Structure formats: C-alpha cells, structure tokens
Amino acid sequence: MRYERKYRIEGLSLDVIMQSIVLHPAGLYKIFPDRQINNIYFDTPGLTTYKENVMGIANRDKFRVRWYGWDPFVIKKPKLEIKHRRNNVGSKTIYNVDTFSFDNLKPISKQVNKLSGTFAFLQPALQNSYKRAYFGTKDKKFRITLDWNLSYSSLMTCRRLRKQQQFEHNVFILEVKYEQEIEEEADRISQFFPFRSTKNSKYVSGIEICW
What we know:
CATH architecture: Alpha-Beta Barrel
Distance between the termini: 33 Å
Structural class: alpha+beta
C-alpha cells in the first residue's frame, strides 16, 4: 500500500518547477529518462468510476490500459492497471494485455472486462497522454514524478482522436510517492516544495474537459 501526495501546479514554467526539484535539500536525482505515458480509462456507461471519485468514496477502483511511447497511436506492450484506493492509501494490480488498435477497441474491452474482477460492464471512456519526469531520493524511499503536456480525448463520443484532443495548457502534476509506514518522513520531504497539496485525478479532469 502506498501514499501519494499530489500537487496541481498552474501559472509557473517547467524550468521553475524543475529547479524546485533539483535544488530540493533531500538531493533528488533523475532515476529514469523522461517518457510519454498513454492511457485508456475504462468506466461503466453511467461513469460510475468518475462519480465515485468526485463524491470522495473511500474504497474504489480505477481501470486503465497503459503503454509508453511518444506517439500514442503506436501501442506497444500495453498493460491493464487496476488502481485500488482504500481510504488514503493505494495499491495497483497489473496484467499484461494484447496489443490493440484504436480502429477496433472491442478486443481490448473484452479483455479488460474479463480481468477487471467486477461484474459491472466497462467500456473505453477516455484516452490521455502526458510527459513524465522521474526523480527519487538516494535511499529509494521516495519517488517524485512530474507530469506535463496533458491531453485528453473522449472515447464515448468519438473515435477520431487526433481531431478532438483537448489540452490542459500550463498545468503540471507533481506527485510524491512512498510507503505508508514513513508518513512522518514524507512531511519533511514535502515541506520544501513551494506548492500546496491538492486532490487531483487526470481521469476526472479529462472527463470534465471533454464533456
């Protein structure tokens, strides 16, 4: 089980935010090259997952298929990730899934429903992409990610994704991730970020932007 502290940052440049990371007194350093993350989120026809998040339901799950690559339409090594939220902590179950095409999402939808562990029918709801930078502490207790260039496309209204992408300009999402037993240490890490911790869900943002 893992904690995530999130910071939604607006009105600052990428350089300024990067500087706050590399100058952090904990000695944060790059642990992985930057890459683009691409997701398809699955939800019920009535958007149950979205509504549970907005209402703040303590115990809920989120379903997404994720792959990496600078072109979101080139799908390689996709994985189904089921994010489990239990009060303030979360965990993740990951499955390998078959490569698919946006021209036909039925096979991947069938596979997601088979692996989801829920009786609810899930369908593709939203595609999103963003760039991510990865940082960590020397003791490997904390991992920090920074996301930017967030784009969203509704999959419930249109399949012509290239023409209907919506962007969150000048929005950055910083996340501090750590195991639940080191909460006190996390306070010392977080206090040196000049940002206010906020609730943030890319899925919720995407649904609200596209709809």
